[in-house]
Fold this sequence. Notes:
The complex is a heterodimer of chains A (49) and B (255). Chain A has helices at 4-39, 41-44. Chain A is an all-alpha fold. The longest helix of chain A is centred in the middle third of the chain and has 36 residues, at 4-39. Chain B is built from eight helices and no strands. With 255 residues, chain B is an all-alpha fold. Chain B starts with a helix and ends with a helix. The longest helix of chain B has 56 residues, at 199-254. The model of chain B has no long low-confidence stretch (mean pLDDT 90). Chain B has a single domain, classed as Four Helix Bundle (Hemerythrin (Met), subunit A) (Up-down Bundle), CATH 1.20.120. Chain B has helices at residues 2-6, 11-43, 57-84, 87-119, 127-146, 152-166, 169-179, 199-254. The A-B interface holds A 1-4, 6-7, 9-11, 13-15, 17-18, 21-22, 25-26, 28-29, 31-33, 35-36, 39-40 and B 26, 33, 37, 41, 51-53, 55-56, 58-60, 63, 98-99, 102-103, 105-106, 109-110, 113-114, 116-117, 212, 215-216, 218-219, 222-223, 225-226, 229-230, 232-233, 236-237, 240.
Amino acid sequence: MTHLPFIVMAYGLGVLIPLALAVDAYRRVRTARRRLAAIDPRLHGRAGR
Amino acid sequence: MGRSLHRFANPGRFLRLSGSVLPWIAVPGAVLTVVSLAWGLFLSPADWQQGDAVRIIYVHVPSAWLASGGYLALAVCSVLSLVWRHPLADLAAVEIGPVGAAFTALCLATGSLWGKPMWGTWWVWDARLTSVLVLFFLYLGHIALVRAFDDPTRGYRAGAILALVGVVNLPVIKFSVDWWNTLHQPSSFSLTAAPALHVDMLWPLLIAALGYSLLFGAIVLTRTRAAVMERRLRGLLMARASSDASAGAGAGGHA
């Protein structure tokens, strides 16, 4: 495998870029859900008021 | 059509529906991507001319398809936004932009990594490579433009117009290897002919394309869910600030 460094870098990028996007999206949705749960009266019900 | 589309504009309905669909896209997407990459790396045969460097195809080609496919999705969202004023289409378009740009960057980077051992150079100003680079700049332009206005609605509209203008680049990318004499190899797939790839390479490539496509969809859906929640959050915070301000003004008036 004389082209191994090129192959390893291509596969590394092919895993890391989608993984980074997925982790970022998951963290963003989790933060938004937590902040929304803290103030949304529809999620809180009467107890939250 | 507009009425049926607007049924899904309800944020609560979208969050419920997307929440139930998401695991069915994300998990198979991740599994298929990992399986296809392992298959491509360890089990698929080397090419008689290119040797093992051909294994880069299993990352490069799906990312190239998704770079163009993502832009097409961006254009469809732009039509939905401009014609039917669909509020979720605006949010989806904003969220497709960075994901599409990342996959276009992946396509360009893996293309360079493939080009160096095969062509002896990282980059040539060949029609295929240049048109994909233009696609990358279109994505970056869209990302910048939708965020460039204080009024988000104006940003969405400007971004939608840019996205539709940029659609002209998609056939240029697809047919560049036929229209011009390029260093990039001709397309291995066509609607009218059998694939030029051997079946031992074709299967892992198709599975990689499916896996990456599902991942792309799952990431965009998750980001759109976050954007819907963030918009609701902004609305609630503004309503709370407005009611606090009016309560303060009322108290001041009584005093």
